[in-house]
Amino acid sequence: MVYTGRFAPSPTGPLHFGSLLAALASYLDARAHNGHWLLRIEDLDPPREVAGATDSILRSLEQFGLTWDGEVIRQSHRHAIYNDILTQLTEYGATYRCSCSRQTLLKRSGDTFYDGYCRNHPPPQDAQCAIRVHCEQDYPFDDRIQGAQQFSHRTEDFTLFRRDGLFAYQLAVTIDDAQQQITHIVRGSDLLDSTPKQIHLQRLLGYHQPAYAHIPVATNTLGQKLSKQNFAPALDDNQARQLIIRALKFLGQQPPTELADSSVEECLIWATHHWDITAIPKTTGFILEEC
Ligand code: GLU
To answer: Confidence band (pLDDT; 50, 70, 90) for 48?
Structure first.
């Protein structure tokens, strides 16, 4: 199988330093393996979308020299596919309807971990429902950066379709990774606990399991993950070379000082040739003040 990697941003705002890390690490890992690198816009959640964010993400990737292969896939164009596969899972008896809101769950068990209530108490036909998948076990896996992963409790019956009528991330991402024949996933470690859920769906649907690598997450001075919700500043496209060098250092790579005078393309060529995934730290105390 040809190495095929991907970057899958949600268009909830412009790229920031945290998303640059995921883009750069997945790009370099793909290119270092002479692989393909695909781009997928995860626009599943219109209320969280920011107008113009997709265009701004594509523009920034171009400015940073991160050129993708093939067509850009948009999840908003793939609802019919998600619906077919969800129907298939329901016909297998792998799913059930659930009317519990987050508040109901908190009141009942004091936790947001789903306790399987609606499995044994089917909601009335006219109730507004999510669709959950039965999950009886956990799925240990080996992460190329984080090592052996074993979760202490079984994965909850997570949602495939949300009560507000939207397809859930876990369903869409698993289908898309399989249909795009992704062999290697490199992304932020904030998604580590999504991986057993995605492996569960891969097993149910007979999909190949990709290799996983979860990079450490960059935090701001308050220790919060850099994210659009925490107002991480947008990347300055005019500082592409400096930001790539900074990202390489964050990822444990050792760019030579001479790179500071070279072009973005030269930086990426150097980084592809010297890419060492084993040098990436599992976690980082590295705090970014102004990125
Ligand atoms: N769309 C997700 C995000 O922007 C990433 C999904 C993934 O890489 O699996 O956080």
So the answer is: very high
pLDDT score at 290: 46
**Same-domain check for residues 163 and 179:** no
- Phi then psi for residue 109, to 5 deg, are -120, 0
Q: Which domain holds residue 159?
A: 79-140+149-169
What's this model's pTM, rounded to 2 decimal places? 0.94
Q: What is the token pair recorded at 19?
A: 């998303």
230 against 210, higher pLDDT: 210
Report angle CA 268, 272, 278 to the nearest 5 degrees. Answer: 130
- How far is ligand 1, taken at its centre, from the CA of residue 248, in Å? 20
Say yes or no: CB of residue 8 within 6 Å of ligand 1: yes
How far, in Å, CA of 277 to CA of 291, rounded?
23
The tokens for 260 are: 């500071």
Q: With CA atoms as reference, report the closest residue to 263 among 67, 37, 21, 64.
A: 64
CATH of the domain at 134: 3.40.50.620
Confidence band for 137, pLDDT divided at 50, 70 and 90? confident
Structural tokens at position 56? 């701004």
Q: At what angle do helices 195-205 and 79-91 cross, to 10 degrees?
A: 70
- Only one residue has tokens 């949600």, namely 10
pLDDT at residue 206 is higher than 90: yes
Helix %, strand %, coil % of the chain (to 5): 40, 15, 45
DSSP codes joined into one string, 110-153? SSSS---HHHHSPPPTTS--EEEE---S---EEETTTEEE--SS
Contact 94, 204 (CB under 8 A): yes
Testing ligand 1's pocket by substitution, the residue of 173, 174, 189 carrying the most ligand atoms inside 8 A of its CB is 173
